[in-house]
Amino acid sequence: MRYNTIDKQLYIENRKNFVKHLKPGSLAVFTSNDILPTNADGAMGFRQNADLLYLTGIDQEDTMLILFPDVKDGKHKEVLFIKETSELIAIWEGAKFTKQQAKDITGIDNIYWTSEFEKILKTLVFQAEFIYLNANEHTRRYIDTETQENRLAKWLKEKFPLHKIERSAPIMHRIRSVKNKIEVELIQHACNITEKGFRRLLGFVKPGVEEFEIEAELLHEFVRNRSRGFAYGPIIAAGGNSCVLHYVENDKPCKDGDIILLDVAAEYANYASDLTRVLPINGKFTPRQKEVYNAVLHVMKQATAMLTVGQTFDNYNKAVGELMTEQLMKLGLLKAEDVKNQNPAWPAYKKYFMHGTSHFLGLDVHDVGFFYEPMQAGNVFTCEPGIYIPEENIGIRLENNILVTANGPDDLMKNIPLEAEEIEELMNAK
User: Fold this and answer.
1) What phi and psi values does residue 402 have, to the nearest 5 degrees?
2) What is the DSSP string of 23-86?
């Protein structure tokens, strides 16, 4: 892996935290993601299953994990299965982890080859009453293909039909949403790489530059700092494209007098950062562009201050909506009559700010967590209000990553230029 070695204590503690939530007599099974095909003999790059990665740190295909805290022999409480390397694999793909390397990464003593999984499982599973199976239960998931997790769950249910099946996902959502010190450091590192990429753009963006050229500048800076690249598909949206929330074509020129919205960020060690900034393409905001920009910035600062321990998302979203309504009225986009007659299910401000303000951040950009529970120390959220005015070719969204702490919100992107005047100054620096 191109990222630096991560302290195995992270994974040891994560497994301890997970098994605390299991029923007595439970065995839990996790598996890696598939390597998905493209065409002919091509394949997409491998991305590890986030839950398995969280529990082991093994960033390699054909990996499986069994956790069985009540095992009778007291030895196989944790069992890891990895792909057996060979001389042929080493020549064509590069050698896979040895058992000792896997032990050093995970802190797990019992390491077997994946080909031994069924044999070892049979020695353990009949001691268990419950089998915990994992699945992608993200509320925004869209999956048309059968995953390795799906196939494993189907196989285990057929093989051991008399066992009681439980779900691991609710436990994983709960424990993954609270980041420990090592995880916060990894997210902060991703934010720092993102900062380097953004600062690189301040002297590069100008009229005539293509959106994809900006993408190339960012990718260069991210990869040279040991990131795999973008944490998600980059949105580099000039002019009217800035009003398209998930614009990904990135194939248009930057025109004098327009703004460009950049929703771009690096990952590091599979942990995501998530940044949005808006630049004036010629280095100077028009009065109207700056007026809208500062309205969004005002909402962002107020919303960030509300990301505190005990805050509920219902109250938070309501308060952000009220802040946005106030700013839209000042901008002349909403009238008092619009607000008075609004549909409570879709308030008037939603015409110009139609998406949510915050989501969980971690191993996934839209990380797992429970929006119906109060915020707690260790949560990391985005804060990303926006105003989109297609008729004016102005789309402004500003986004930072916020750690909730006992002492208040900690902005992990506080060093990345944000004020309109600072951005103009940096873009025009000689």
Assistant:
1) -120, 125
2) PTTEEEEEEPPP--B-STT-BPPP---HHHHHHH---SSS-EEEE-TT-TTSSTTEEEEEPPP-
Tokens 């990718």 -> residue: 219
pTM of the model: 0.96
Q: What is the pLDDT of residues 177-222, one digit of tens each?
A: 999 999 999 999 999 999 999 999 999 999 999 999 999 999 999 9
Do residues 240 and 97 both lie within one domain? no
Q: What is the pLDDT of residues 8-28, one digit of tens each?
A: 999 999 999 999 999 999 999
- Which of 130, 149, 176 is the C-terminal boundary of a domain? 176
Q: Using CA atoms, how far apart are residues 181 and 52, in angstroms rounded to an integer?
A: 19
User: What domain range includes position 56?
Assistant: 9-176
Inform me whether the pLDDT recorded for 1 exceeds 70.
no
Q: 51 is written with which tokens?
A: 């839950």
Alpha helices in 306-346 (DSSP H): 313-330, 336-340
* Tokens representing residue 225 in the block: 């700092």
- The DSSP symbol for 344 reads T
Mean pLDDT of 422-427: 98
Please, are residues 63 and 83 in contact by the beta-carbon 8 Å criterion? Answer: yes
Average pLDDT over residues 224-241: 97
Q: What are phi and psi of 245, to 5 degrees?
A: -60, -40
User: Can you tell me the distance from the alpha carbon of 265 to that of 349, in angstroms, rounded to the nearest whole number?
Assistant: 28
Any idea what the CATH number is for the domain that residue 403 is in?
Answer: 3.90.230.10
Q: Is the pLDDT of residue 137 over 80?
A: no
For the chain, percent helix, then strand, then coil, each to nearest 5? 35, 20, 45
- 322 shares its domain with 339: yes
CATH number of the domain where residue 32 is located? 3.40.350.10
